Amino acid sequence: MTVYGTIGVEYAAKNIPVINASLNNPHINYSFNINPKTKLDYENKLLNLKNIKKKFNNNDIYEYYYMKNIFSEKSIFIKDYHKLVNQLGGGTDGYKAMNTSKVYNFILDEFKNKKLINKKRMIINFINTREYKLGFKIYEI
Predict the structure, then answer these.
(1) 141: confidence class by pLDDT, cuts 50, 70, 90
(2) Model confidence over 57-89: pLDDT tens digits?
(3) Residues with Cβ < 8 Å from 64, sequence gap 6 or more?
(4) Which helix (H) or strand (E) holds 122?
(5) Separation of alpha carbons 60 and 3, rounded Å
(6) Exposure class string for 11-21: b at 16+ Cβ within 10 A, else e
(7) Most confident of 48-52, 95-99, 133-137
(8) H/E/C letters for each residue in 4-68?
(9) Given this model, what pLDDT does residue 46 score?
(10) Cα→Cα distances 117→86, 133, 139, Å
(11) How far apart are CA 2 and CA 8, in angstroms?
(12) Mind listing the pLDDT tens digit for each residue in 102-132?
């Protein structure tokens, strides 16, 4: 069971069924988790765990993993994600370096001089849109 956790995809990859306790979860559009629609439905699933049979579509699991962890849309912090990965060493080395201080040097470079003024405008535009996630859409001037 999870509410929003990564266990939703991790257990699915091991063919272990996962019940989400909320419809507000990152796996909601995929078939590899069980998403009860009501509190009563959730309770019923919990009381009948032995009867849960779930078929797993590995392509859904791979697609979710790719979209969540590898694919990246533009953001005001990283305009060209693939350029960043290549500058950090390319391939798996580049992805591993995303969790090091090297990534901050790349981002700091994006905030120099004229770029900084444009980034400030983009942040102000984001605030004015009342969107809930920075970087979800691009607000270039």
Answers:
(1) very low
(2) 999 999 888 877 776 556 666 777 777 878 888
(3) 9, 26, 27, 30, 32
(4) helix 113-129
(5) 19
(6) bbeeeebbbbb
(7) 48-52
(8) CCCHHHHHHHCCCCCEECCCCCCCCCCCCCECCCCHHHHHHHHHCHHHCCCCCCHHHHHHHHHHH
(9) 94
(10) 26, 21, 13
(11) 7
(12) 878 877 776 776 777 777 887 888 888 877 6
Under 8 Å between Cβ of 33 and 16: no
Q: What's residue 74's pLDDT?
A: 60
| pLDDT of the residue at 139 | 47
The Cα 97–Cα 100 span in angstroms is 5
Whole-angstrom distance, CA of residue 118 vs CA of residue 111: 9
Element (H, E) at 119: helix 113-129
The domain ranges of the chain are 7-66, 72-129
Contact 85, 95 (CB under 8 A): yes
Return the residue matching tokens 């257990």: 11
Distance CA 9, CA 27 (A): 8
Q: Which of 51, 25, 54, 22 is closest to 39 using CA atoms?
A: 22
